[in-house]
Input
Amino acid sequence: MPNGYLAVDMFFVLSGFVIAHSYDDRLSGRGGWKILARARIIRFWPLVVLAAIICLLKALASEIVDSASGLPISIETSAIFASVFLLPLPVGGDNYLFPANVPLWTLALELYLSAAFALLFPLFVRRGLALTLLVSGIWLAALIANFGSNDLGASVSTFWGGVARASFGFLFGVVLCRSNIRLSVGPVLPVMLLVLFLAWPVPDEVRMIYDMAFVFVASPLIVMLGASSEPQGAQLRVAHYLGAISFSLYMLHGPIQGGIFAAGRVLGISPLSLAIVSLVVLLILCPLVDRLYDQPVRKFLRRILNSAEGARAPAG
Output
């Protein structure tokens, strides 16, 4: 998927759509931001912590096998600890915001944006929303033109590009949800469009135009088509499976793939074989993580946080 980084933009649009769909009514009332904050904590942190543990095990294993192959273990451990709190700690030559688990930058920005959306909810209606969306869109277009692509946000040098991507995509998702536009074409077409856009070989000369076309047109369209779809039968079962593994797959693919490839290099295994092994391991592991770890831990956190909220409530 040579254009795989563009899936991040669809993630931000989808995130804004889902947050608006699930919380618009509650955020308009008193204390709505607390409801969203609690839901985000419950949803994010179990897998954030598990990913950090896997990153730590991978770092320790690398230290034992070849201590000169990467960052000093003390520095890498600091970056891993910071990632538990979704705080960037750029160390190493690549200057990634989250060097232990690179994709975390998207989740961190999504969390900060949803918090700002909840706290400043009255501003994100009608004119305020339209103005903010317009400004963030112009900002993002200027950054894409400057860098020549939309592969922005993972490193220190492209951080503000990530902020622009997240802001524009999230707010566009909110607009799509509130517009209630539906085009029922079935679930297959949006999936095919997404795969096509991510896999299409794009010459460098048109990279900037291609990325802008995806960000400003294709990505919102795919989300809108997907939101209009009602899968049935086998499609519904596939959708449930993909939905169940999506977050754990996103959170864990970096450290697990990194560990498998590191071990493969030591053992002299070909990259293609390692890619196949990584895919198989993730497709087997992620449903187990969802069922045996993520769901039970979220249920536990929900019970603890709800009990604490009830204890603080004044007596009737």
The chain has a mean pLDDT of 88. The chain has ten helices and no strands. The longest helix spans residues 271-312.
